[in-house]
Design a protein that fits this description.
With 204 residues, this protein is mainly alpha-helical. It has two domains: 42 residues; 159 residues, no CATH class. The protein has eight helices and four strands. Strands 1-4 form a two-stranded antiparallel ribbon. A two-stranded antiparallel ribbon has the order 2-3. Strand 2 and strand 3 form a beta hairpin. Helix 3 crosses helix 4 and helix 3 crosses helix 5. The longest helix is centred in the first third of the chain and has 18 residues. It is elongated, with a radius of gyration of 21 Å.
């Protein structure tokens, strides 16, 4: 659920006044900076809230449990999750998930197994989704659909991509006997980490 701006402002104002015994000496955002940046290493309510909002989206995109499969089937059957719409009739759960979508999608990367992720809309190269470079592409094609008998079928994409991107694709390999694995790019081990997410999101 989105934190109301009035609640966030009131909490930060109250804590700042308590910290400085009545009269704040500096902005709360400065107080929340790390020690080496001149702050007191406190945590911003807004940045904490945003960090927690992106985690459920990552969990859903992992497709690792019945809940995520249900949500994807219900709300993303027609469109890719990154482009699925939100309607007034949709559940509060879905609406809250989507609040963290834009921030979360920036940090997702698929480690290819069988290549079931979207060729255009998922990040499976080291440059992010190809659709970021070719916005007219709508997706709907899986990576493994342009791979046949151990070779890339470049007639599908060679006239659409730059030579650099074609070369990147043709230097990428995957194992059709393995599952694709979703990684969180902010963490060294690829697992979701609140610590690394907060550090990236926090106001600098």
């Amino acid at each position: 659920m989105k934190m109301p701006e009035t609640v966030k402002s009131k909490l930060e104002s109250t804590l700042n006044k308590f910290l400085w015994d009545g009269t704040p000496w500096c902005k709360w955002s400065k107080v929340c900076a790390p020690y080496d940046e001149g702050g007191l290493n406190m945590r911003s309510f807004q940045d904490i809230h945003t960090s927690f909002m992106v985690k459920p989206w990552f969990r859903m995109r992992e497709i690792a449990c019945l809940w995520s499969k249900f949500m994807l089937d219900k709300y993303c059957r027609v469109h890719h999750p990154s482009r699925a719409a939100v309607h007034p009739s949709h559940s509060r759960v879905w609406k809250n998930l989507v609040r963290g979508r834009d921030e979360a999608e920036k940090h997702l990367h698929w480690q290819l197994g069988h290549g079931g992720c979207d060729f255009w809309l998922d990040s499976w190269l080291n440059i992010g989704p190809l659709a970021d470079f070719y916005p007219n592409q709508r997706g709907g094609i899986k990576v493994n659909q342009v791979w046949h008998q151990g070779k890339w079928q470049n007639q599908y994409y060679r006239d659409l991509l730059t030579p650099e991107h074609v070369a990147m694709i043709e230097n990428t390999f995957f194992d059709p006997d393995m599952e694709d694995k979703l990684l969180w790019k902010l963490s060294p081990d690829g697992a979701f980490s609140f610590k690394h997410t907060y550090e990236d999101i926090r106001e600098k």
